[in-house]
């Protein structure tokens, strides 16, 4: 008998690990869809006129091969002790936080907490972060993080403009701010017509400005009291912003005590690795009366249907959706995972631990300064926290080289000075090596002399809430982190079928390298010869993204999708300006566009002209043509999403691009739906000039409860000279604090591309389209499918129309909350059409999980039908009482349906059922009674009574 080997490759990552349905399951799904083959389905779905000719052809790596390659690349980075500062510092990530948060899929695969009932754990963790920021800055309201310190400073500027009573059009920037912060502020100010006045604080004329930002401590170490300057600003009806350092604020007089209106900064040094630039959670806090002008997300406290405490996103519909083209911010994401880490760092150490770390850093800096001065060096400033600047004259290059020879990076300041910033990792050996680089061999003096005037010592308490006093035992911390994660529903529990959000597998092998010190410990401004590994990652990932998209160049700088939109539009703006066509300011945007699109266009100084949609959801070509003609030589760009926001491949996309180009405009194609294009369609080949790619969607970076993300932009050759620059690498137009944005998570997308290979990426796109059409086919008899292509197919997502059920009193909210009882996160609600659900299953979901979702949706439809037949009132139905908690299960039962029906609907797991910790959350109560820091325990004791 002839032996027949199995035709199965266990190391085929794409088809064995990433893509959910097996070949046999795909056959069953295709029968349900009514297509003979997968390729036939793609031919029916994607117009032939836009299909790419050349296949993606690089070979895949197995997981173990990928990790070996990553080790080789990591070895090309040289890990030094970087004392460069500039807002980036060495830190110690507590192992309990690294393993239980950063490396835990329960935390990193969670989605933005728009459904609060299934996000109570991460909401509490983010509330801890907000409380930490509010306490340390001395301002009562904080948000749940921003992208980086430079972005936060730019957001503070526009927030100040919106809030100030002054009529001035200038903004003062302290020359002691970090250079990257100044660069991003200048980029953001230029298209808005804001004049930037940069200078020393003593030169501030409050009457000339609507606001000012001061760095505290300054980039070169200066610590000064800004109380008088802030009072002068207030007298002129202007707003005061302080960029500050959370660790320093455990010792320093807080911004709130100086009268500051807004405080911003980075929480990176609270246990988050530098990662060659990110991701890190920036923070913002403000006075209470400014809270409604604050950009980003704010976690607040409300109550559920039983009156129990419940967390939620407060003021949830942020301004880019309310104000659209009048918005001053397009912030749509945060750095939630990193904010959670920083918040847990404060919980782990408590106020005394943080103070002890700060004192150790400060006293080490005092000793270093004393040793340098004793040897005759000129050291500034007199008052400092952790940073000093040494005047070295013509010896600058030699000292920098000598330090590097001893494994230390110092900061080059001007032509004759060297900057030194100490951190949590600095010990006696590091100080000795620094002194040795200066030719000083005497040990630094001992003692705990303070290098701050008494008037700048902090007098107020901070982190008084009990949550920051539970740090004595790791067992307690471990259990607290587990309790919070158990309250959440993340991708490690169930499918998260969110349209336009692409919650796909975040493979363990892709995630592992980000915590290796060769990648995590690099300073973003370290000499380039120390980052050869990162250079290889950026170059190869850029080349692969160019091949995928048909573009000629990429910038990795934007660290979110919305940041990518802005960077792309600013690249277009710079292109027109360079051609002497600065008058081009009109941007055509379809009415169905993402809320951030018009906000981004406004921030880029463009005038938004809204284009109608046709009845089938496509762009109304006649209206588009007329508005392009009306704009004429003022047309700057159009912004389109492809496949469309309605989940179909519009056949007219080439015509939209042609019309735009005929009038001299540029085409911005939003890459949010790139998961339906990879390997099938190249945006750069169908007429688009620039796109951002959501690496946290299509290219497998996890959402992390609402961030981190990356939004690099690809451009055709004519736009490449106008991509964002950076103070560290040359050029202007800086949009993020670090040259390569959140560089460390580029590793995830690179690993994804390497393991999938070109053919695997293409197959993933095909299966994403199959899964969406399978859901549409299974549900179309129960729910109307709102938009389908000319041949009755959807792209990688479909929209279920739930508006007809309103006549029976059933809302889209009722359906979303009832899905929680079945153990599912709801699809995207009421976008792009109010009263609908947009479903995107992704290619990673198995047929079994998709069928479970279909079972849930059909069971919910049966419950709606019972209401429609008047067998039960909507208000009495399980739909309106959803989600059901354990408290509901064990309480007296007086409802019009059984416990079984309410708590164990057909798609729910019996043994492993997910129980939401709270019932339906009262959003109105939360906004009317806004609480966004950890409330005292006695408040809840009183409420319970």
From TrEMBL:
Signal peptide: none annotated. Its cofactor is pyridoxal 5'-phosphate. Keywords: Oxidoreductase, Pyridoxal phosphate. It is an enzyme of class 1 (oxidoreductase). The modification N6-(pyridoxal phosphate)lysine is found at residue 697. NCBIfam families: gcvP, PRK04366.1. The glycine cleavage system catalyzes the degradation of glycine. The P protein binds the alpha-amino group of glycine through its pyridoxal phosphate cofactor; CO(2) is released and the remaining methylamine moiety is then transferred to the lipoamide cofactor of the H protein. HAMAP family: GcvP. This is Glycine dehydrogenase (decarboxylating). The gene is gcvP.
